[in-house]
Each structure stands twice: as structure tokens, then as C-alpha cells.
Amino acid sequence: MRVLFEKKEIGEVMVGTSVSRQHENFLQVIQSYYQLTKPRIIPLLLITTAAGMWMASDGRVDPFLLLVTLVGGTLAAASAQVLNCIYDRDIDYDMERTRHRPIPSGKVQPRDAMLFAISLGLLSFTLLTVFANLLSALLAMSGIVFYMAIYTHLLKRHTPHNIVIGGAAGAIPALVGWAAVTGELSWVAWLLFAIVFLWTPPHFWALALMIRDDYAKVGIPMLPVVAGEESTTRQIWIYTLLVVPASLLLIYPLGALGVVYGAIAVWLGIIFIQKAWQLLQAPTDKQLARSMFKYSILYMMLLCTGMVVDSLPIMQQVTTGLTENLQTLVSAILIGG
């Protein structure tokens, strides 16, 4: 059976290669390698990196350091995604939404993709080491290793808890941003890591509910496949109830952010909880799952934007002024009373 499967896989790749190469020019080759990096995923990782940098620098982030760190983070994330495409090429061919990716379609050979991934990783490490610091570079490399060795190899095909544990890989970019500025990791950095970590299950399980049949077809034990929609929506509900309060810990007790971020986090959190509740009431509704998935992306992007805005010096001055005026007003009222 194994030999037959390998022959089948090799045959499919050869057919795809012979067809695609007849029509490929240089720009199409570049596009194929670009698609290997799964570029739509990377911006969400980078915004957590930027949020960490702004908070670590109290809103006075060095533009050059910001650029270098984001480029280095992009290269590391791209390397991880290319390696993932190589490893998962067998199941990618069988899943409808992934069979047209460059490797299963034969546009890029696994060996060439591996060289591309190694080059991206080395460039990331070099860039971060030279222009940021060694800690940020090592964290970026640990993200690649964790994503491939722990999530993709050990967890993804073997346990429905793959996303819970594997979420650590997606949370590492926040640590990279903080380390690039400070050269160390504080409690605030680890809380930012925890927020992304807790956010990952509701985000990814909502997607898994949408494409449950695809995962079942290739034998990937995602939670909706193994435990069903009801159990999955309960877990989404629980993790949503965890991530929203966790986001507020940046205000108290850590005191890293103020009322502007607090207002944004509360507003976003209420909507997040509402969507999780709606999905809990209708576990099989794929439109609700799609809505939850899309909003989870918006939630993280706007939450990180709130961190950046609140950490700006001008915003801190406004907040301090409002606090002082409020204290003066309260004192006047108490004295007058």
C-alpha cells in the first residue's frame, strides 16, 4: 500500500509539473515561490510584532529597527510556511482548497522549496542578529522550529489539541518584537504572548468548522472532526471568555496601557463574546463560523492597533491630563460638599 501511495503521489506531481511548466514564465515562477510563503497569514503575525515593539519603546520605536524587525519576522514566517508546504504536500493534494498550491500542483519541486526555506531562515537570522539583537533572532528561529517540529510534525496529524499547543508558534512574533527593542522579555511581553496564544483556538477552530469535511477527508484530527461541532463551539466559547479578560490585564495589574486601549479592548471583547455565544447556540451554522473566523482576525488587528495608539507619547500626555483634571474635579466636589 505504501509503495502504491508513493507511486500515486509521484505520478500526480509529475503530471502537474509537466502541465504547469509549459505555461510558466519568470513572473509566474516568482509568483509560485511567493505563494509558497502563504502571504495572507504573515501580516497578522507582524502586527503583534509591531504592537510589542511600540509597547516596549513607550511609543518611541526607532523606524529603522521597526523596519528591520518586521522584515526579519516576515522572512522567518515565510520560511516556516514554505517548510509547512513541503511537509504537508501529500494532504494538500487531497484537500480541495490546497491542491492548487505550488508543490502539489507541480509548479515547485520540494527540493527547490527546501533551499528557498533555508535561505529565508538564514536571511532572517542574519538580519535580526546584526541589526536588532541575538535574542530576537533566536526567538524567530524558535518559532520556525516550534511550528515545524512540534505543531506540524508531532501534533497536527495526531491530536485534536494541535491548535491549542501549536498556538505558541503564532504567539512568538510578539516576543520577537519586544526583544528587538529591549533585549529581554518582561511580564508584559509574556502577557502579550498569552493573549495571542489564547486567541488562536477560537480563531482556528472557527476555520476548522468551515472546512471540517476537508480535514476529515485527509484524516487530520481537528477538533470538529474528532469531537463534533457542539464540543468545538463550547471550546471556542471557553477560550473567548479567557482571552478577553486576559487582554485587560495589560491595564491592571501590569499598568502597561491606559484607558484608550481599555475602551477599545472592552468594545472588541464584547463583540467577540457575542459572536462566540451565537456560534454556541448554532454549532452547525457555517455562516456563523465564517463570521467568527473573520471577526477574530479583525479583533486581533484592532486590539494590536489599540496597543500602538495607547502607547504613543501624545496619547499618554492626553490621558495624564484627563486623569489630573478628573482628580481636580473630584477633589473640588468633595471639598465643596
Automatic annotation (TrEMBL):
<dbReference type="InterPro" id="IPR030470">
    <property type="entry name" value="UbiA_prenylTrfase_CS"/>
</dbReference>
<keyword id="KW-0472">Membrane</keyword>
<feature type="transmembrane region" description="Helical">
    <location>
        <begin position="292"/>
        <end position="309"/>
    </location>
</feature>
<feature type="transmembrane region" description="Helical">
    <location>
        <begin position="41"/>
        <end position="57"/>
    </location>
</feature>
<feature type="transmembrane region" description="Helical">
    <location>
        <begin position="163"/>
        <end position="181"/>
    </location>
</feature>
<feature type="transmembrane region" description="Helical">
    <location>
        <begin position="63"/>
        <end position="87"/>
    </location>
</feature>
<keyword id="KW-1133">Transmembrane helix</keyword>
<feature type="transmembrane region" description="Helical">
    <location>
        <begin position="187"/>
        <end position="211"/>
    </location>
</feature>
<keyword id="KW-0350">Heme biosynthesis</keyword>
<keyword id="KW-0808">Transferase</keyword>
<dbReference type="Pfam" id="PF01040">
    <property type="entry name" value="UbiA"/>
</dbReference>
<keyword id="KW-1003">Cell membrane</keyword>
<feature type="transmembrane region" description="Helical">
    <location>
        <begin position="108"/>
        <end position="128"/>
    </location>
</feature>
<dbReference type="GO" id="GO:0005886">
    <property type="term" value="C:plasma membrane"/>
</dbReference>
<dbReference type="GO" id="GO:0048034">
    <property type="term" value="P:heme O biosynthetic process"/>
</dbReference>
<dbReference type="InterPro" id="IPR044878">
    <property type="entry name" value="UbiA_sf"/>
</dbReference>
<dbReference type="GO" id="GO:0008495">
    <property type="term" value="F:protoheme IX farnesyltransferase activity"/>
</dbReference>
<comment type="similarity">
    <text>Belongs to the UbiA prenyltransferase family. Protoheme IX farnesyltransferase subfamily.</text>
</comment>
<comment type="pathway">
    <text>Porphyrin-containing compound metabolism; heme O biosynthesis; heme O from protoheme: step 1/1.</text>
</comment>
<comment type="function">
    <text>Converts heme B (protoheme IX) to heme O by substitution of the vinyl group on carbon 2 of heme B porphyrin ring with a hydroxyethyl farnesyl side group.</text>
</comment>
<dbReference type="InterPro" id="IPR000537">
    <property type="entry name" value="UbiA_prenyltransferase"/>
</dbReference>
<protein>
    <recommendedName>
        <fullName>Protoheme IX farnesyltransferase</fullName>
        <ecNumber>2.5.1.141</ecNumber>
    </recommendedName>
</protein>
<keyword id="KW-0812">Transmembrane</keyword>
<dbReference type="InterPro" id="IPR006369">
    <property type="entry name" value="Protohaem_IX_farnesylTrfase"/>
</dbReference>
<feature type="transmembrane region" description="Helical">
    <location>
        <begin position="260"/>
        <end position="280"/>
    </location>
</feature>
